[in-house]
Model the fold of this input.
Amino acid sequence: MRALLLTVALLAPLPAFAQDASRGREIAENGAGDIAPCASCHGMDGRGVGAAQFPRLDGQHPSYLLKQLNDYAGEARRNEIMTPIAQALSEADRQAVAAWYGAQRFGEATTDPRPSELGERLVMQGDQSRGLQACVNCHGPEAAGLPPLFPRISGQHAEYAQAQFQAWREGARRNDVAGVMREISGRLSEAESAEISAYLEGLRSR
Done:
């Protein structure tokens, strides 16, 4: 059943995004109403701030970014910062912001790769003895993303990725399709998820 849900979702047509993302740029740069500019946390180029757990948005598909904004707005995904921001934006503005950041080309990884045999093995091969799929099975070659469901995770800040593993593990984040990430995170130790996160942060991909 889970495989069927994933297949149907992946085959669903991606939403159309307006060519002009100027409204998204305006919100990113200047905010909207009482909302602070997106760039204050994510930067205009979407590269975020690792130490503050503000994720990289550059290189993500706009359909994935829009889903996350809509999930924040509908509280399928809760965050004390992002939930009120997403709720204050109109549907059109959420789409505009997703279009802007989805148009930002992925920059190079922000750190040098940290050698990790464990991290590399789990990302590239998984562990079939424990029912752990390789990250690249869902997130695509070089973990560069497979929209609309699976985001780019190569180059993502390790601090943010590790926080998401913890959120999935504890059930604080529940907007994954068919509970896939909650199940995988529950099978990983904290040390293993830290090794995966560190390896991914330095992973160069297209």
Notes: The CA atoms of residues 158 and 197 lie 5 Å apart. The first helix runs from residue 2 to 11. The mean pLDDT is 90. The radius of gyration is 17 Å.
